[in-house]
Design goal:
The protein has 275 residues and is α/β, with parallel strands linked by helices. The protein is 41% helix and 16% strand. The chain is built from 9 helices and 11 strands.
């Protein structure tokens, strides 16, 4: 039987509620967009999740009502007409207990936003460390499947884009073609701005594709990634336009040997610095 995303979301919410209980929080206001999506499946923006032991309410506005109903059937929503902080206050005022501690993740709001929440919610509000992010560090099976699919989309897309490479093509043209191939396969928006760099330009770790034209024998560096349901891939590869120069081949061999040696040392208990 296929496992549904909804089943994973329910498990994530249960784990977070246990964390909240340990922190003695009666409610948590989740403001980070990625965290909101992790706990609801909602892919929109400008929305906040209010989570309590027995309640889960997504505070949004009229732009997203239909999207939420489609992506998160059954999720309780509160459509705001004014400031987010005031709307969150309206939601919490309907909860049975009004004396509990309400957590706001300090790393996810500005000082002015926290002040607005405190003004709207009263003294029960307190700053807390990130509660959701640590849970996201360990990926569940659904997340792993999305990352793997994102990688496959990226790999298929770059192979398709490489078929269009020709002498005289600019970095921007190749980057645009690769972006198109990823979006066409469902991997959009791109995970980050695609990097395509020819020759010496490839020495810049975050090179921006420009109008440099490809010439015979030039190295081509591509750093790219696709996005699928919020999960991103990130790959970097090098090619050559025509015959591979000896210096390039030697550098590749040395890097490969170093990579394989590092992989051999990876095992439980080994630090990053050792590998």
């Amino acid at each position: 039987m296929a496992v549904r995303l909804k089943d994973f979301i329910e498990g994530r919410v249960r784990r977070l509620r246990r964390v909240m209980a340990e922190a003695k929080l009666g409610a948590l206001v989740v403001t980070d967009g990625a965290d909101v999506r992790y706990l609801t499946g909602f892919s929109g923006s400008d929305s906040v999740l209010v989570l309590a032991p027995c309640r889960k309410v997504l505070v949004t506005d009229s732009r997203y009502v239909e999207q939420i109903r489609r992506e998160c059937p059954g999720l309780t929503l509160h459509s705001r007409k004014g400031p987010m902080s005031a709307a969150v206050g309206e939601v919490l005022s309907k909860f049975q207990s009004k004396s509990f501690q309400v957590g706001i993740e300090a790393d996810c709001v500005t000082v002015s936003e926290f002040d607005a929440y405190r003004k709207a919610l009263g003294r029960g509000v307190k700053k807390v460390a990130r509660q959701v992010y640590p849970l996201r560090e360990l990926k569940d099976d659904w997340e792993v499947s999305q990352i793997r699919k994102s990688v496959r989309i990226a790999e298929a897309s770059v192979l398709a884009a490489l078929e269009t490479v020709k002498i005289g093509m600019t970095e921007q043209e190749l980057a645009a073609r690769l972006d198109y191939e990823m979006v066409r396969r469902g991997g959009g928006p791109t995970a980050f701005k695609t990097i395509v760099a020819f020759k010496g330009h490839a020495a810049e770790p975050h090179a921006q594709p420009g109008q440099a034209k490809l010439k015979k024998g030039m190295p081509i560096l591509i750093d790219w990634g696709a996005t699928l349901n919020g999960y991103r891939s990130d790959l970097t590869r090098c090619w050559c336009a025509g015959r591979i120069p000896p210096a390039f081949s030697d550098a590749y061999r040395r890097v490969l040997e170093a990579q394989l040696a590092a992989i051999q040392t990876i095992k439980p208990g080994v630090t990053l610095s050792e590998s």
